[in-house]
Amino acid sequence: MHIVVCIKQVVTREWQLRVNDQKTWIRDQDASFELNEPDAYALEEALRLKEKHGGEVIVCSAGPARAAQVIREALARGADRALHVESDALATADASTVAAALAAAIRGEQVDLVLTGLQSDDQGFGQVGVILAEMLGMPHATIIMEVQASDPSTGSGQAVRVKRELEGGWFQWMTLPMPALLTIQSGINQLRYATLKGIMAAKKKEIRKVAAPDAAQPLQRITAIAVPEKGKQTQMIPGTAPDAAKELVRRLREEARVL
Amino acid sequence: MRLVVAEQRDGQLNRAAWETIAAAQQAGGPVKIAVLGSGVDAVAAEVAAAEADEVIVVDDPALKMYTADGFVQALQQVVAAESPSQVFLPHTYQTRDFAPALAARLQRALVTDVVSFERAGDALSYARPVFQGKLQAQVVAEGPSPHFVTWQIGAYRADAVKRGASAAPVRKASIAIDASAIRQRVEEPFKEAKQAVDLSQAERIVAVGRGIKGQEHIDLARQLAQAMGAELAASRPICDAGWLPMDRQIGSSGQTVAPKLYVALGISGAIQHLVGMKGARTIVAINKDAEAPIFEVADYGVVGDLFEVVPAMIAALG
Ligand SMILES: Cc1cc2nc3c(=O)[nH]c(=O)nc-3n(C[C@H](O)[C@H](O)[C@H](O)COP(=O)(O)OP(=O)(O)OC[C@H]3O[C@@H](n4cnc5c(N)ncnc54)[C@H](O)[C@@H]3O)c2cc1C
Ligand SMILES: Nc1ncnc2c1ncn2[C@@H]1O[C@H](COP(=O)(O)O)[C@@H](O)[C@H]1O
Q1: Residue nearest to atom 6 of ligand 2 (CA)
Q2: What stretches in chain B show pLDDT beneath 50?
Q3: Among candidates A121, A222, A250 on the partner chain, residue whose Cβ is nearest the Cβ of B138
């Protein structure tokens, strides 16, 4: 089975966000970066499918040169090779531009499955995977919590049966013909981490640079970015931890009367 | 004209449809409402109570069970026939599944998870969360209309919908769905084995998030819960990691609760968590990051290390 996993590099959760001078994005020159969380689960799922059915796992990332960090990490965890659509503009591009860049790289590959995360931690469009499916002419399913693939070597009738998460604890199984695109939800599996052996092996694996296609007209643009306004009056309780804890308990008992 | 796509399942209208209608009414101008499914006359009659120009029904056996391909086919035709300036949808899992494909097929803009709008000349400018709600972006849609916009659940109030003096006219659209072109074969939705705990009845809840760092620290939260007479719950990553069972997860993919007291320990306050607990009467947030979005919904906040604050709370309660 040939599986492409789309992975995005995003700033780490712990990074203290600061808005840039133009107020259009964050200051990320000195930020630390990591693999977008659901993409890590998508990669793990691809590695498990490969272990079961054989084949190849290719990771694909669109972004500036620094995205090589998450590509190396994915190779160290077990991906076989990588495609890197390298362009600085892709770091902050809209969903359709990113999907077009990924599609340009993936079109040259023979694939059975494309996996993406369901949402990126920074832009949070929740769109790139589904747009990519449309661009590649593949059927798709989103927010996936289980994947049962039939063996592609058995020839005709290649299909994938997936469990899709619905709201409020509901689920649904559905079957798609392959090639298909799935957007993966966090928690679908337990993640593995790179071993020293994996890190060494990754050094020899191929990272192919792919030129970004000529950017089409973006379909959305950020005009300003800011810390959101508070909706509620929060009583912030100051002081050292013991003092704040005592005062909080007092207010919950005497003011809110919930204890 | 703004077209609202009202979501229903098995003839039950999704409450979020009203919120989206409210957003469309507040944006001003004519509003039409589309209902898709099979045997959805009752739903159409229900939404026709809203002040709207028309309710358009697409009724086809191929739409009985939702599929992305079926909905994209149907809405592509509705949009072509109606030429709306914008299409508004609730930001549900169903919308997430088909709206990007629909917008991509038509090569139109889609702005997701919008919480509010501003007028920018003739156009609208939308506010949406980025960086997991830690920041908010103001976004404009570019390119030709229609622009597709999905509205965050809870951003507009369902009870703000203006009712019409009389019911809006309901019209069946003559749209043909080619069922053979639907590539997804879907089975009946189901719930996992019955949940052992029903947190919706809990009076008090102590919920832990990733700030708890490791499974070995869950017991600290459990002690606080005991001292408060509270049930223990968690954000999704805690359940994903297996540190607490799934049936203790709060949020859009877990349980929705409305206790008297909700104490959030080391939870950042992503929208998918907030939708499950913002109905709590008193919300307490303990977080080391003063800018964590959880403080936006909290009544009481302590900025600090939970490993210092929680033991002190247990002592103060004792
Ligand atoms: C479709 C979809 C469905 C989802 N469904 C759900 C759902 O049902 N429920 C849910 O919860 N999430 C859900 N999520 C995930 C959600 O988007 C967030 O990723 C998740 O809620 C984050 O969990 P968290 O707050 O525990 O972790 P984080 O966002 O990592 O936050 C950890 C917090 O702990 C604080 N912290 C760290 N150390 C300390 C310390 N020592 N003392 C005090 N504070 C500390 C940090 O400042 C931070 O604010 C869903 C996401 C998607 C896309
Ligand atoms: N620049 C990118 N490079 C590779 N994959 C991406 C990129 N942006 C988004 N994706 C994929 O698309 C998913 C959804 O992202 P988004 O639409 O931004 O919420 C992510 O989880 C990734 O799998």
Answers
A1: A8
A2: none
A3: A222
